[in-house]
Design goal:
182 residues, mainly beta, Jelly Rolls, 6-stranded antiparallel beta sheet, 5-stranded antiparallel beta sheet, 2 helices
Amino acid sequence: MEITPTGFTDLYILKPKVFNDSRGFFMESYNDLTLQKLGIHFNFCQDNQSFSKKGVLRGLHFQKDPHAQTKLIRTLEGNILDVVVDLRKDQPTFKKVFSIELSNNNNLQLLVPKGFAHAFVVLSETASVLYKCDAHYDKSSEGGIRFDDPELNIDWGIPNDQLILSEKDVKLPLLKNLDFLF
């Protein structure tokens, strides 16, 4: 497993070793002992999977304390633009955006610590996304930020008028109106 820092505290890009042969490929996508040897310690307790078509944007979501979640995100099929916003007031990257393309071709994963809002948009015709969480989902702890917040100015790689969002995500507040930050 190769780990690349992002310039954001505890936000890492993970690249597993992929073994290809005439049958296809094999990779170990997660191994807690490997990560622990690299100084990364999380106990994941929940896996979530989504399937979406091109233009679907899910997010920007987070869970408030005490149910905040660290996530390990990967794409099983297709391409997504994965986007996070640092909501940790004590960090120099507070309110900064990080984005990366994750796909079944590059096999990259993004380890997102507690304190970030997370979203992704599907760039391919369809995509299946799997992510591990280190805390269980708690509806009363839901939080989020509008995808088109002018303060964040996120380039989703798809024009905003072609994005497909849930009714809930369209109604999320702007960052300046959040009642909760980490």
